[in-house]
Amino acid sequence: MSGISVAFGGVAALSDVSLTVEPGQVHGLIGPNGAGKTTLFNVACGLVRPSAGRITWRGEELRRLKPSQLSTLGIARTLQGVGLFGGLSVLENVMVGAHRHARAGFVSALLALPTADKDDKVLRERAHQALVELGAESYADRYPGSLPYPVQKRVALARALVADPDLLLLDEPASGLAEDEMHELGELIRALSSRMSVLLVEHHMDLVMKVCDRITVLDSGEQIAAGTPAEVQADPKVTEAYLGDEVVETDAAELARTDGGRHV
Ligand SMILES: Nc1ncnc2c1ncn2[C@@H]1O[C@H](COP(=O)(O)OP(=O)(O)OP(=O)(O)O)[C@@H](O)[C@H]1O
User: Fold this and answer.
1) Which of 45, 85, 96, 117 is 20–30 Å from 225 (CA)?
2) Residue 216: CB within 6 Å of ligand 1?
3) In sequence order, which ranges of the chain are alpha helices (DSSP H)?
4) Atom number, ligand 1, closest to the C-alpha of residue 40
């Protein structure tokens, strides 16, 4: 993505931001609250159309990118909300992510032609493998609503992985996870980078520093730093941006205490 700008109702959410995810690398996108991370992530998913800038994928410019194009482009994503289908089993949810590997079209599936049957078997097998990779195969027949949040997150990740993407977009995959689950997630993301590139939006700094090859830092819609984890950590502009954020959070916590926490 280069020179990306986005404005919501005249207010700039992103100004001239550029970011390249290199093949086989994990690229972190960080910044304090309201920095513009989700907005940039949504631009990459085709959910938000930038007012300026270019999105290029494998050397070709993607004009008017739509979320529905992602799977054909070899791009998969997980969103902040888990977004599983409540009426489908875990296995079926994951199968939805694998549909780009189906050879039969919608019509033959509808008419239950033999190709569709064969496809169904292949997709089931792929989905099962993805669940095994995420250690969630024992939940295959359960429904998402009955599962703990961390398991739902794994299923959502399995659904993204089953498409065998070249680029995986992850928006806050560690939110709501316990320390050991976060550690496992870190190992998994590192392992994934041998077969795909990853763009990771994440608040947990330990995780970001551990798994990313490169990091872009946003603050108030502007790119304030980019580089390796060590370079970014040593950048005074980054420390300053986060300090401001902590002061705001401390104020909020203080307010909650003095107000008995009723309004915060
Ligand atoms: N749909 C929208 N309409 C109006 N303003 C928006 C919209 N989405 C985001 N914004 C504004 O754009 C700015 C960037 O928001 P964004 O959610 O991208 O930041 P973020 O870095 O992801 O924040 P957080 O870490 O809190 O999730 C904020 O000022 C936010 O209020």
Assistant:
1) 45
2) no
3) 37-45, 70-73, 90-97, 106-110, 114-133, 149-161, 179-192, 205-211, 229-233, 236-258
4) 18
Structure tokens given for 261: 């926490």
Q: Model pTM greater than 0.90?
A: no
Ligand 1 nearest-atom number relative to CA 31: 21
31 lines ligand 1 (CB under 6 A): yes
Among 37, 48, 51, say which to mutate for ligand 1: greatest number of ligand atoms within 8 Å of CB.
Answer: 37
Residue whose CA lies nearest to ligand 1 atom number 31:
34
Q: How many residues does the chain have?
A: 264
Domains recognised in the chain with CATH numbers: 81-164 (3.40.50.300)
pLDDT truncated to tens, each residue of the chain (264 aa)? 999 999 998 889 999 999 999 999 999 999 999 999 999 999 999 999 999 999 999 989 998 889 888 888 999 988 776 778 888 899 988 888 776 555 445 444 555 555 555 667 778 888 899 899 888 899 999 999 888 888 888 888 898 888 889 999 999 988 888 888 899 889 989 988 889 999 999 988 889 999 999 999 999 999 999 999 999 999 999 988 887 655 444 444 554 444 443 433
